[in-house]
User: Fold these one by one.
Assistant:
Number 1:
Amino acid sequence: MKQYSLKKRVLVTGGAGFLGSHLCERLLADGCDVLCVDNFFTGARRNIEHLLDNRAFELMRHDVTFPLYVEVDEIYNLACPASPIHYQFDPVQTTKTSVMGAINMLGLAKRTKAKILQASTSEVYGDPTIHPQPESYWGNVNPIGTRSCYDEGKRCAETLFFDYHRQHNLAIRVVRIFNTYGPRMHPNDGRVVSNFIVQALRGNDITIYGDGTQTRSFCYVTDLVDAMARMMNNGANFVGPVNIGNPGEFTMLQLAESVIRLTGSKSKLVFQPLPSDDPKQRQPNIELARAKLGWQPTIALEEGLKKTIEYFRTSPGA
Ligand SMILES: NC(=O)c1ccc[n+]([C@@H]2O[C@H](COP(=O)([O-])OP(=O)(O)OC[C@H]3O[C@@H](n4cnc5c(N)ncnc54)[C@H](O)[C@@H]3O)[C@@H](O)[C@H]2O)c1
């Protein structure tokens, strides 16, 4: 008699990226079969190399702007360049990845009756006029700026998710991810935590944009991945959108000082003008995640920075 696997088959798009690779690890540890799909635009084989011998793991090179025909039970849609340097490199492709990628993955979910989670972003709030931002805030987004390909692409993807939910009764989940950091971040993509760490480890000047008083909140990657898994598996059919991040707020100056202290670096701070549309403050309100998912971050910035610094110290090429 033919044997069918009872293991959950989970597709992770963007699975060879920073967040995706940690999510693949977590899903394998949870006993799932994982199909990692990536076009390697910003992802890297080295991020998932340690998983290739695992028989429950499969890697497929594919661009989500094209339809995908596979059989799966759940889809985590993470494919999209996430840092300004990468998403502004080919802005048209960025919008295509968000919008056509969402359409293709939602179509796949519809055909296979899979549950599907969208990795949305705090950038849907744009340059917010209220702090911290609850999910009910509609945002303050410039539709024609240089960040718009990402912000508006992600907003349109959310629209598509909710329309597929209303129109086709799809089981969707939408998480709005705030700044997340950890091992396997790109070393040179302009994101502040990796920037500061790499500059400090090389003994280079640490670049602060503006006067360094703008604030960000930073969530450690394993906390984020845990929230995504809880969101996918919540039995109450809570679809979101839900903010996921760490509400602890730090100025860029505080972050730079912590990195210098933890690396023991002699780097100096240098100041450069703020890029256009750069938000002054960004802090998640995570009350909904606490209430609906019983989730809150557990890794303090200092602990997460130590692990991230260790990664950049020891990874050749990173
Ligand atoms: N890291 C954060 O702080 C953060 C914050 C908010 C939202 N997000 C979202 O989380 C997701 C993952 O972000 P990340 O930080 O891991 O970035 P990342 O760049 O490391 O990962 C994105 C992955 O998607 C792949 N990809 C890009 N375009 C693709 C395409 N057309 N087809 C197939 N694969 C494609 C890349 O090669 C890469 O592996 C993104 O959707 C991003 O918008 C991340």
Number 2:
Amino acid sequence: MKSISILGSTGSIGVNTLRVVEHLQNDFRVVALGAGGNFEILADQVRRFQPELVAVKDEASAESLLRALHGRGATPPRIELNEKGLVAVATHAEAETVVSATVGAVGFVPTLRAIEAGKRIALANKETLVMAGELMTTAAEKNGAEILPVDSEHNALHQCLRGEQHSEVKRLILTASGGPFRTKSKADIENATIEEALNHPNWKMGAKITIDCATLMNKGLEVIEAHWLFGFPAEQISVIVHPQSVIHSMIELVDGSIMAQLGVTDMKHAIQYALTYPVRQQNCLEPLDFTKVTSLTFEPPDLERFPCLGLAYRALQAGGTLPAVLNAANEISVQAFLDGQIRLSKIARINQAVMDLHANKQASSLETILAADKWARETAGEMLGAEEVSAA
Ligand SMILES: NC(=O)c1ccc[n+]([C@@H]2O[C@H](COP(=O)([O-])OP(=O)(O)OC[C@H]3O[C@@H](n4cnc5c(N)ncnc54)[C@H](OP(=O)(O)O)[C@@H]3O)[C@@H](O)[C@H]2O)c1
């Protein structure tokens, strides 16, 4: 039996991870859970999985968790707070695998510490690799930590690349559903409501990634993530819009062969693959029914209506601290959109304006990356109220 820790256990990926653990009940034991403030879900998880350690974001959440546990007659685990708590979850001595599934930069330091502790990382929290890909992949190599992608596209690429020579791969092809505004005009996107933007056609996910899908920022973050996971330059990573989301991603080989991974749109598949790799096990999902797949269609992404994708390519090509800056600006602008402070189209304008203002530096240390992240958050924050944000 293998022991696992989960960062972000109360979120969409975290909850699905625990469903996979339930399905593979004789193979995995949960030793630590990290969450924010959703103590009702967390209390239920503690009662069912009995972890030794739990991390929550602050004292008030810890008190609420204890009350909720008392109400359920569950024995309280050891409780730690904030980033220190998440690091304790990520580096728990018994955990062999750490599922990194918090959202945004909050998962960065804990995930890095898990890598330094030589754990297997089942990585969903793509923002961490976008911020500090070099630091994380270098640390993984040094400490013998394996990073296995949970993101369905990268999980598909990982499967397609199994047994292939790096030199024989011509390009990686990430598929994108196109999100809820794929067929909408620029004006429709400009005036989109929060509800419309949260209405993803194929996947049920947390709010931040759902908005990233609506702007195609998510695909941009995935291009950067693919670079760090698989070692291909931006020129060898392409994106194709595939609205049905049946093909999760593909690789093209130098002889023109295309290898694709197909499956149902359920994250439990990718999560289980990352937990059990290199072994494949029966999962708990319905198989893909080809008689219900009426068509597989493809179209190029439209960078004019969805400029965030272009910004991500620019950040990857520039390297240094620019990807961390793009990520941080995007976290601020997406939250502002979710809070009803800005329109959807302003997300890209703020992201670009912050990138334009940034004096790029080598992303060689944790301190440099955290400083760039902080600067970008502050700079983006100052732009939220501005009537018009224009790029330099
Ligand atoms: N959902 C998907 O299908 C999917 C697919 C591919 C990749 N991903 C990636 O996976 C990550 C998680 O996505 P999600 O959709 O699962 O997000 P989500 O549903 O919003 O869950 C986020 C998790 O992070 C926790 N969290 C947030 N702020 C925190 C803080 N300050 N301290 C501690 N924990 C905090 C939340 O805790 P509380 O709820 O307790 O506050 C929750 O457990 C993202 O990076 C996303 O891009 C998700």
Number 3:
Amino acid sequence: MHESCGVFGIYAPGVDVARITFFGLYALQHRGQESAGIATSDGKKIYLHTSMGLVSQAFTEEQLAQLHGHIAIGHTRYSTTGSSRACNAQPILVEGNSGTMGLAHNGNIVNSKFLMEELTQQGFSFSTTTDSEIIANLIISSTERNHVDKIRYAMRRLKGAYSLVILTKDKLVAVRDPMGVRPLCLGTIDGGWVVASESCALGHVGAQFIREIEPGEIVVINKNGVRSFTEESTRKALCIFEYIYFARPDSVIQGKLLYSARQAMGKILAREHPVEADLVMGVPDSATAAGIGYSVASGIPYCEGLIKNRYVGRTFIEPDQRLRDLGVKLKFNPLAETIRGKRLIVVDDSIVRGTTTPKVVAMLRKAGAKEVHLRICSPPIRHPCFFGVDMATRWELIAAQKTIPEIRDAIGADSLGYISIDGLIESVGLPKDIFCLACFTGDYPVEVQLEMDKLALEAIPSGSLSELGGS
Ligand code: SF4
């Protein structure tokens, strides 16, 4: 399962903003590994470099040196929507009547087809297959006179998830959709300002975290400082999977350190699904903290039973089944000496299609595990995501097709226990009504229900949601 993108922005006169953006993106690499890009402005001109590949592969010293100025935005992308092509790398630049604008986007727009048709009729053409270009064109299509009002116009038309960083010649703008599906935070650096998808990126570049950008908020940063504008937010829908899996464990979202939330998930799993065993392990790296939590709460010793090859990317480079099959072998190696003859509790973050988990269970058994009891930090995923998570169609989700005992048998575990929705909320320690839980409940945020019904009908027979356009 992949999240779509990471975004970063900086306004800091006298600072090498391209280099700082590079390291900001480097810290956000886990949010997307297919392409990376940086756009900068020196007040007169906008400069851009994008490339396929990891952040470390996408830039050379010479290319960074060409990105002049004191304002920058950056993006690291996983192509959940829009195909994996160089032209879809971000930031993108568009020309409007108030000049050139750069934009980078994390999320997914659910009414993008409708908006694209409308913009095409108005004479706009599209050079990418991402919905980020639709957002950018929607902003510049507005007849409003200033950028904030143009963005407000677009926000009233857009439905879905979008955390944006926008660059013009003289300002940096950060925007979070009124539901606040994807995170976005604000910090300071050397008398300037930074925005990033996750707080971990601020720490890496020596910036200080100030606060999160609120759902529906537009933050404008220019030579006059920071100004904030707000669009109404009627329904909040922060993606709970940021806590389970996507965001880095050293990030803080809504005041909660993710590492602590994941440990709490493990503790609650131990309470909800106890079992006699010799050792507890977490599937590295996303379930390590939860595995430790399970061990602490149950008193069963923690061990490292699988060693992860950290140089194969976060999950799988290409989202096709053949490479997924290969990927699990490249990714883990079991520690046979540790697990041989042992009854294992294995904590993992989620089960999506149920294609990877049986291989992990089989690998542990082959290495000598006597029993494998699987504990999962997410409730069963029964509904697809329409907000930028490359999950699967409903037909591919194992929990949409099978009961829990059937899933246990299909993955070859001795027992299987999922955290409850209430247990998950308790572990995060925030009110339930601020979250999107749609992939467990099918209760999508109200504002986008009609669009999602329509997309669901289109998506189910055809396969991947990744063909629907977006970022
Ligand atoms: S449907 Fe699931 S993965 Fe998608 S935004 Fe909602 S909680 Fe996150």
